Amino acid sequence: MTRLIQNSTFRLFKNKSNRLLFTCYPTCTHAKLSNLTRSSIEYSNIEGEKAQLKMEKSTSKTIVLTGYGGYDKLRIEEWPIMKPGKDEVLVNMRTNSINFAELMARQGLYDGSPKLPGVLGMEGAGIVTQLGEDVTNLKVGDRVICIKMFGLWKEFATVPAEQCFPMPDAMTFEEGVALPVNYVTAYHMLFDIGNLRKGKKVVIHMAAGGVGIAATQLCKTVPNVTVFGTASAVKHKIIREVGVTHPIDYRTQDWQTEVTKVAPDGVDIILDPLLGSDATKAYATLKPLGKVIHFGAANMVSGPGTNYFQIAKTWWQTYRPAILSMMPANKVVAGYHMGHLPQEPIREAMVDLIALYNEGKIKPRIDSVWSYEQIADAMAQMHDRKNIGKVILTPYDENNITPKT
Amino acid sequence: MTRLIQNSTFRLFKNKSNRLLFTCYPTCTHAKLSNLTRSSIEYSNIEGEKAQLKMEKSTSKTIVLTGYGGYDKLRIEEWPIMKPGKDEVLVNMRTNSINFAELMARQGLYDGSPKLPGVLGMEGAGIVTQLGEDVTNLKVGDRVICIKMFGLWKEFATVPAEQCFPMPDAMTFEEGVALPVNYVTAYHMLFDIGNLRKGKKVVIHMAAGGVGIAATQLCKTVPNVTVFGTASAVKHKIIREVGVTHPIDYRTQDWQTEVTKVAPDGVDIILDPLLGSDATKAYATLKPLGKVIHFGAANMVSGPGTNYFQIAKTWWQTYRPAILSMMPANKVVAGYHMGHLPQEPIREAMVDLIALYNEGKIKPRIDSVWSYEQIADAMAQMHDRKNIGKVILTPYDENNITPKT
Asked: Which residues of A touch B273 (CB under 8 A)?
């Protein structure tokens, strides 16, 4: 008979005669090893009973940020697995993601970048493996989406239970991890700040990126919305399929000129992840009661390293609205940063978004999946704006994301 | 038999023997006068037929702004009645109103103040007396609410037909004239920019004023909205009746301190007609995703004349948001000025507002009615913040607003 023992603490060691033994709490103290794999041990215990022990790793593969700067500042290390706090759970991450925030955080440009050495990663999807003592709304084995202000690029990460959202059965770990940041960001910007209603005109920059695709899909849930989307020409076919009405090639065309040709009176909502002169143009392209929402500073990031000239230039080119001139212009200017939001509006958005997923109205688009070891290439994919949809990471290899049960 | 002749052009004159005669086009050239009142002439025409002619005044009592400054810059004059343009109608105004905009415009502080000598007045309610040749949606005799970027403080004013809204039968001219500026302003700020939804917390300054009462009533159309309203203590009973949850006496209490006691995490919407240090406090009192809407600069107006020190001080004390700091704070800053809006959003709001009036959900509150000749006292009533609700003007006397038919 083979017994399956989970969630035990054990330690391998060698005895004086160089024989491999292990202690295992609470099941046995010493046992005879019969088979050892990465994830399980078969052994005979003191009573001669055959048993299988699912190994619980004591360390977690982790992408560590060792300094602010280029891709070389990221290293793969084994870090100890932390015990979840009272209100936390331990999650075995099957997928993580890269957001623009992590590109900026790596350069130390992101408000809220972790202290060094530290761990980035705002999203994860995986399996709950351990519960903090006060957690009642989740159980071991639940498939969950996790949101945390960094610290999730880990094979095993602790996450506050209220920041974990059970995944629908049909949702893959790749889809799950693509939902929080991009879709919650797009949701808050369009529906809370932008107050998107039928017939409105929306400009979406980087329309082939994670937020861009999420925003386009959310625009399509409202009747008769016109979407202007910027992307390089090679991506136009795809963003058109997603729902962009007027694709604009920002490399060869001035987006403001193109938008104004179609909408001479201006547009209702502009989502601006760029800042700099594009932000200033955005403000000018709003119609009365139009809303511009700034949610990033992509123009500050010009290469893999920190470029202070580019940062200063972007800052300089960004307008600074004067209240007295905003009044006659009827303009609405917003800053958005999901990482600084309290949990309540995030939860509200996630509940709505999971419902929209179940109704088939939104579906995260996956660009590519990379192992932790490929982090530099994965980041370059995003930085060079090659991606169409979400760039996914996994601590495993890409064929082993969903564990065999 | 007495015939009623309307809309004729006539002229009174005396003949050589000093007898009063008149010519009247197209009905008659000379006629024998039998009775003359301010508004009608009874006469016998050439055929001996008795007739009554409703006089059409050739001049219009008008409040004229002769210079920028104090109350003495406003004079009552008789100005010629203009012929309506193709898309305009001529309206016999039965009521007009005073808005804060007119107080500022009188001092030359309002963007869009008319050239001198000019006519203020953004709202009117009255009766259509003449149609431009292309007007099809209105007819002579219609009771209408008029909105125009100044020029309505006239007994007879021309108004673009699309800026006239037929009044429900139950609505008085006093109520009608109180609807556009205050209610459209409150409507756009709360429902378009503010995206007011159930359970939100709102700060309304000058809660006993026109916009304040309109905004409070509109807040009550949404479930479970908390309203903080500032007003002097003597007005608290009334604003509480209108719907303010927490009245704050701005003269003896710091509104920010009082709001924060009840809502330590901040509020969702702040309507700011003040600017200066109150605007800066408002920005600081928003919760994440909170929206502050600036729609006036009452703090710039300290007395009946133009006070450049007060203007400079208010300007100086008003914050200037930096986009990069708005992002982590998740703040939304808006400027609002109804006078600079295109017609479309105003029409949309008016349609909704008239529906809300018909449902009994909103009811303009009238503070007081003043004749044109009392304009200085009427303005002082508002400037000194004595009013609770709308301050109304009429070219007639207050007992003759609704004409006897």
From this structure: none
Angle between helices A277-284 and A255-262 (to 10 degrees): 10
ipTM for the predicted complex: 0.81
Residues of chain A with pLDDT under 70: 1-57, 301-305, 404-405
Which of A327, A335, A339 is the closest to B335 by Cβ? A327
pLDDT for B365-401, tens place per residue? 999 999 999 999 999 998 888 888 899 999 998 777 8
pTM for the whole structure: 0.81
User: For an interface test with B, which of A324, A337, A341, A343 has the most B Cβ atoms less than 10 Å from its Cβ?
Assistant: A324
Across the interface, which of B188, B315, B339 has its CB nearest the CB of A289? B188
Q: The tokens of B372 are what? A: 């044109």
Are A333 and B327 within 8 A, CB to CB?
Answer: no
Contact across the interface for B335 and A326, Cβ inside 8 Å: yes
User: CA–CA separation, B167 vs B144, rounded Å?
Assistant: 5
Q: Is the pLDDT of residue B26 over 60?
A: no
Closest approach of A177 to chain B, Cα-based (Å):
23
Pick the closest to residue B290 from B308, B314, B263 (CA basis): B263
Of B111, B315, B335, nearest to A331 by CB-CB distance is: B335
pLDDT of the residue at A290: 98
Which residues on chain A place their C-beta less than 8 Å from a C-beta of chain B?
A: 111-112, 188, 192-193, 195, 265, 275, 279, 287-289, 291, 294-297, 315, 318-337, 339-342, 345
Pairing of strands A3-5, A50-54: parallel
A331 contacts in chain B (CB < 8 Å)? 334-335
pLDDT tens-digit map of A144-191 = 999 998 999 999 999 999 999 999 999 999 999 999 999 999 999 999
Q: For each of the domains in chain A, give its residue range(s) and CATH number, in order of start.
A: 3-54 (no CATH), 59-179+364-394 (3.90.180.10), 182-340 (3.40.50.720)
The answer to whether the Cβ–Cβ distance between A323 and B333 falls below 8 Å is: yes
Residues 6+ apart with CB under 8 A from B299: B274, B275, B276, B277, B278, B310, B314, B317
Give CA–CA dist A181/A96, Å, rounded.
Answer: 11
Mutate to test the interface with B, among A109, A327, A333, A344 (most CBs of B within 10 A): A327
pLDDT at A41: 58
- Residue B95: phi, psi to the nearest 5? -140, 150
Q: Which of A332, A346, A348 to mutate to test the interface with B (most CBs of B within 10 A)?
A: A332
- Each residue of A301-317: pLDDT tens digit? 666 667 778 888 888 88
A322: closest chain B residue by CA = B320
Q: What is the Cα–Cα distance from A319 to B371, expressed in whole angstroms?
A: 47
pLDDT surpassing 70 at residue B52: no
The enclosing H or E element of A314 equals helix A308-317
| Cα gap B54→B43, rounded to integer Å | 11
Burial B298-321 (b: 16+ CB within 10 A, else e): bbbbeebebeeeebebbbeebbeb
Which among A193, A329, A340 has the least Cβ separation from residue B328? A340
